[in-house]
Sequence to fold (589 residues):
Amino acid sequence: MADTLIQTENLSISFGAHKAVNNVSISLEKGLFTTILGPNGAGKTTLFNLISGLLKPTEGKIYFKGTDITGLSPIERVKMGMGRSFQLTNVFSRLTTFENVRLSIQAHQEVGYKMFTDYRKFKSLNDKTHEILEEVLLKDKKDFLAGELSHGEQRKLELGMVLALQPEVLLLDEPTAGMSIEEVPTMIDILNKTKEKGTTIILIEHKMDMVKALSDKLIIIVNGAKLVEGDPEEVSQNPEVLKAYLGGGVLNEPTT
Amino acid sequence: MKLLKNIDKKTFIAIGVLLVVLSIVPHLAKLSTITLMSRIFILAVYAMSYDILRGYTGFINLGHALFFGSGAYIGGILFTKIDNTMGVFVLAVIITVIYCSLAAYIMGKIVLRGGGVIAAAMITLALGEIARNTAERWRSVTMGADGLPFKIPDIFRDRLGFYYYALIFLIIMTIILRQFILSPTGRVLMAIRENEQRATFLGYNTSKYKLIGLQVAGITSGLSGVMFGILNRFANTDLLSVQQTLNALLITLVGGTGTLYGAIVGSAFVNTVQNYLLDLRSVHPIFERWLLFFGAMYVVVVLFMPEGFVGLWNKYLKDRRTKKNSRVFEKGL
Fold:
């Protein structure tokens, strides 16, 4: 088995009486493409928020690369090599597409608090930005304001911004949410390329074709607790999963 | 020279012509006009400092006059207590820079601890009022509500000469602030304005950046305060009041928020209108209530051009460019 990159121990968070995440202990291995699956409201995004530091757990611990990061801020977690995208599009809408990605690279390269050097003079940053924009197929849109892009393009931009951080682990929260069906294959393509580069990807997803094509491991979460984890084929045959996640249906049914 | 490379030829010529005009005009104008224009230049710098916060960082500071008034008082107090010489002026500038960066640091540490934009605005309002009250009570130094008249260095006494100093001050500060906005740090401030949460998840320590923004704005504001004090040869507690902060807010609103140059246009417009309305008092007594008309002007501006003059101009340029592009596109077909 590969090295464990992220590990959670009895992770719980409650909002009032509601336990959104309940005693979740999972380990996410380096180099494995792990998909977290579960019905709406199961606590998948909350789990991401806990791992990335947006929320503080009420109980339990989170380890990243063997260090306890439970008390660290999101900023410190990003610096350790954790990048995340958001389910709802979260870009700098009144800045250009280019600038969105460039800012991301600037953050990664630790330019520091330079106050009087022109930002356009950092050639390596600009070159890198072009590379990333090419990777996420937004090269011709670079001078558009991010807010003017179509929804699908904004999702790609969002992904580009996380890729620009060159994280060791990529937490992707439904990168294809709200995308049209025609755009999904390009997204899968981009993710496949990222995976080949050796980045560990943790994905939250609903679209079954995507999960099947990409995942090495599935984790099913229901009602805030882990139901089952393992090999995609194995898990998708598990009767408990079929019952909880699909209400008794078949996992191989055509995607909607 | 490096700076000029970034500006295209047309803009370069336009700025050149503007500068030539601005350096000839005072020789033909009345003394009151010269004073008005000096005032425009200085308040433009003050408004630009406010734009760094509101327009670029998305931080509403209702205590911004704290820096402006402090600058004027620091100049005034030093000229009175020590001597009105150039040496003291340099000392006043140095002390203002140190004082304002410290004050901004403290303000930032209190305000940026969390909470929303509104909570931060309210705290800055309170801090500004504390400064104003202190100035009012500390009679032995500030002369309290009477205000502090003071002598200024001889070199600044000539109104015409001071006009040029004010103009140079505006040019230098515009170049510095423009560089700041174009720097990596300035870019991060814009990212924070757009979406602070996202900036955090790119790994930016957003409070640190906001603190830098506040310090730059505070120092700029303080320096414009020193110049404003010298222009009026007088400092009073009004310079520290919320009213003074709102002046900056309104100037940037009229000129265009988040454009930097908008502050210059806004300052020219607001001060000219204000001056004109004050002159009308001798025409009809209703203009004793000139603030009524002044307020109406703001309402009109906000209703019909919410992006201000510069915003309107940028939009016009963009529309024209799109039209040109589509024409080229049609020809291509």
